[in-house]
């Protein structure tokens, strides 16, 4: 390995990082330790992968031929090991000009070990030919058990006996592509590709790169050849076969296409319509044009992985596929943005090991946040960030959580968690705030261009940032990438004798590091904002500032970049002020959340304002919590609730308002419930039925029984959710 970090023992690594990393110290019990996960050794480099595949639906087999071009990475060798899970080999040979030279080999359940015809040097390329059968449904673990996941290749309803479409699709991440073609199945390998897929003529295919030819075989089959001239990692190879309808869009002359089941084809543009705008936004922001020859998105039946960013061809689960009615209530814009951003972070530059998964998933999640900011403004961006923060905080306990760049783990699939996704994304946002947008995005551009079509790790990102800014970012990376946890700050604000004071305690679990946190503090004094800057770097710390008079409000960390928790001594009056006068998304949602637990009149004033909030989640919180028994706000609250129930464009808010009005028991709203059942929105219909049930259970049951089967199916599921 040529990585500097691997030259150090565990003890030296800890010294290098500056502090002991909990859960990786040498004094832990042996059974609690996992081995250091080294980056995959590169004995050979993949150069080009050519595949010719067809399918035996009855046996659930893939019949394949592979021509794999390789070269030794550095040292000459006559041995080649390929990942090939559960394959049957008919022939393995080397192509020498026009000659085919058979090769000797052995295999186990996961790899094939080939003796080449001679020793090859790093300057020499060679082609290995393999005739094989892939049997994904017959895969066994090394212990002999049948594999139920990570099969790589999936046959959906191959016999046509189920009430679902017949499809074939692949899922390569993390290292399952080697279940359908022999390769070196590691993220630090890159290869160009050419994949010829022979299928029944009635089916559509999709793979990486461009469709370069379609050949009618005169026997009811057709061979589609897909070619990718730019190198990408084996786990990002994909195929899909089935009855898909294609909607073609465009971005700067490149094909942008959406593959859906026929019944959803009319809604393709409504589902994916923002994709070209996203491509334009990301390309301009990063200073790197969308790098691949086309971009396709396909929705596959029974797909279990959420979505997968295969190079130039993203696979989505069925939840993305929606009718026009369903889109009234919900869309999967975040997922679409996330997978697209991977085409740069993950595909163009790929994490060189699963330990560095943050270089893929943290960035893609960060990309979601930035898209929402571009598309919906700062409020949308802040809402997305806040959601990521809450996702992460649910994963930690007393400030204790896993390390972001994890070189010790039991199972690589465990890395796909709220640390790699949510925490990593807000850590990136925080460093963007500290560095400034211009320097940050110039750093990302340098990282992408310097490592294009190769792999990258966190240290390369840090070095790019240091080259751009001239600043040593090691302390930031050591704190956030190579140590775990988050700060929990207990804050006491005070004012006396012309001085504003802040008393801070870091109260995260004692085993968690003491954080260094550069933060801003805004004081609102006599209608003027006064900004101060502090660095919290001790477990207990006090700050004081000369302030002209007692502040009306103190806003710690106004940009809300803290990756952690703040517990302070704010009162309901402070929350009322911040909602009305410092109305960032963070301040509004924290005020509303506090008000939901407070029965004071000031709390009701916050919730009353929240009824008209522009964000539907804040509206819903306010609708549910507002106390209609408060006579001082009841009249205005009822008036607003009726308006929401009748007119709000956000259907979840209309549904929640209907339920709230029905809970009053006032029969004058019953007609509103009945009218809502005629609405197109499943949310609104559900709200109306729940409302009728509050008047009389039989009323709700009767209304549900009048719905058509499609509506009833959607509404029944929503009623359970909205009734909670």
Automatic annotation (TrEMBL):
Zinc as UniProt keyword: yes
**Pfam families per UniProt:** Peptidase_M1 (PF01433), Peptidase_M1_N (PF17900)
What EC number(s) has UniProt assigned to this enzyme?
3.4.11.2
InterPro entries in the cross-refs = Aminopeptidase_N-like_N, Aminopeptidase_N-like_N_sf, Peptidase_M1, Peptidase_M1_aminopeptidases, Peptidase_M1_dom, Peptidase_M4/M1_CTD_sf
- Spans through the membrane: none
Q: Where is the Aminopeptidase N-like N-terminal domain?
A: 48-236
Q: Does the keyword Translocase apply?
A: no
Q: What is this protein called?
A: Aminopeptidase N
Q: Which family does it belong to?
A: Belongs to the peptidase M1 family.
Q: Which cofactor does it need?
A: Zn(2+)
The superkingdom listed in its UniProt entry is Bacteria
Reactions the enzyme catalyzes: Release of an N-terminal amino acid, Xaa-|-Yaa- from a peptide, amide or arylamide. Xaa is preferably Ala, but may be most amino acids including Pro (slow action). When a terminal hydrophobic residue is followed by a prolyl residue, the two may be released as an intact Xaa-Pro dipeptide
The UniProt record lists the Peptidase M1 membrane alanine aminopeptidase domain at 275-480
Which keywords accompany this UniProt record? Answer: Aminopeptidase, Hydrolase, Metal-binding, Metalloprotease, Protease, Zinc
């Amino acid at each position: 390995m040529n990585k500097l970090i691997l030259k150090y023992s565990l003890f030296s690594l800890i010294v290098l990082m500056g502090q002991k990393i909990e859960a990786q110290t040498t004094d832990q019990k042996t059974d609690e330790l996992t081995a250091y996960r080294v980056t995959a050794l590169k004995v050979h480099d993949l150069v080009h992968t050519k595949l010719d595949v067809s399918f035996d639906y009855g046996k659930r087999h893939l019949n394949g031929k592979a021509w794999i071009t390789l070269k030794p990475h550095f040292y000459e060798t006559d041995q080649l090991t390929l990942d090939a899970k559960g394959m049957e080999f008919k022939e393995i040979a080397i192509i020498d000009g026009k000659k085919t030279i058979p090769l000797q080999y052995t295999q186990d359940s996961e790899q094939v070990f080939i003796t080449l015809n001679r020793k090859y040097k790093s300057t020499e390329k060679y082609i290995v030919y393999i005739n094989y059968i892939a049997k994904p449904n017959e895969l066994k673990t090394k212990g002999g058990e049948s594999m139920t996941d990570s099969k790589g290749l999936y046959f959906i309803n191959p016999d046509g006996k189920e009430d679902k479409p017949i499809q074939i699709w692949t899922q390569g991440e993390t290292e399952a592509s080697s279940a359908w073609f022999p390769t070196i199945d590691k993220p630090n390998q890159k290869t160009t590709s050419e994949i010829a897929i022979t299928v029944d003529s009635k089916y559509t295919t999709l793979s990486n790169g461009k469709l370069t030819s379609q050949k009618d075989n005169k026997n009811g089959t057709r061979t589609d050849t897909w070619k990718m001239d730019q190198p990408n990692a084996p786990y990002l190879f994909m195929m899909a076969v089935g009855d898909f309808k294609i909607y073609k869009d465009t971005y700067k002359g490149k094909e942008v296409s959406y593959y859906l089941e026929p019944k959803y084809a009319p809604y393709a543009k409504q589902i994916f319509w923002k994709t070209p705008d996203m491509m334009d936004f990301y390309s301009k922001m990063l200073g790197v044009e969308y790098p691949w020859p086309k971009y396709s998105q396909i929705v596959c039946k029974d797909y279990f992985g959420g979505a997968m960013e295969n190079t130039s061809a993203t696979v989505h689960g069925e939840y993305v596929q929606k009718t026009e009615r369903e889109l009234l209530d919900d869309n999967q814009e975040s997922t679409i943005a996330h997978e697209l951003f991977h085409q740069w972070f993950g595909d163009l530059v790929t994490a060189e090991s699963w330990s560095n998964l943050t270089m893929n998933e943290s960035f893609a999640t960060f990309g979601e946040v930035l898209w929402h900011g571009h598309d919906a403004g700062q409020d949308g961006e802040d809402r997305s960030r806040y959601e990521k923060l809450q996702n992460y905080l649910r994963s930690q306990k007393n400030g204790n959580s896993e390390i972001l760049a994890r070189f010790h783990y039991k199972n690589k699939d465990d890395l796909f968690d709220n640390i790699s996704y949510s925490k990593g994304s807000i850590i990136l946002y925080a460093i963007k705030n500290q560095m400034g947008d211009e320097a940050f995005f110039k750093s990302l551009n340098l990282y992408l261009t310097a490592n294009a079509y190769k792999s990258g790790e966190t240290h390369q990102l840090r070095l790019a940032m240091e080259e751009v800014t001239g600043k040593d970012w090691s302390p930031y990376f050591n704190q956030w990438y190579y140590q775990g946890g988050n700060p929990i700050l207990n804050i006491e604000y005070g004012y006396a004798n012309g001085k504003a004071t802040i008393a801070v305690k870091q109260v995260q679990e004692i085993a968690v590091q003491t954080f260094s946190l550069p933060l801003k503090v805004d004081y609102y004094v006599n209608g003027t904002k006064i900004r101060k800057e502090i660095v919290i770097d001790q477990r207990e710390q006090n700050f004081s500032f000369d302030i002209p008079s007692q502040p009306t409000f103190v806003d710690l960390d106004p940009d809300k970049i803290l990756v952690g928790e703040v517990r302070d001594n704010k009162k309901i009056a402070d929350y009322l002020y911040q909602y009305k006068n410092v109305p960032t998304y963070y301040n509004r949602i924290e005020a509303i959340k506090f008000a939901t637990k407070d029965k004071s009149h000031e709390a009701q004033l916050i919730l009353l304002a929240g009824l008209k909030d522009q964000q539907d989640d804040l509206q819903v919180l306010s609708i549910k919590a507002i106390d209609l028994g408060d006579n001082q706000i009841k009249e205005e609250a009822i008036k607003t609730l009726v308006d929401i129930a009748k007119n709000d464009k956000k259907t979840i808010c209309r549904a929640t308002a209907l339920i709230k009005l029905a809970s009053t028991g006032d029969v004058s709203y019953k007609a509103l419930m009945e009218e809502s059942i005629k609405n197109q929105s499943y949310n609104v219909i559900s709200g109306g039925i729940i409302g009728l049930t509050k008047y009389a259970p039989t009323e709700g049951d009767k209304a549900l029984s009048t719905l058509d089967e499609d509506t009833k199916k959607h509404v029944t599921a929503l009623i359970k959710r909205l009734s909670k």
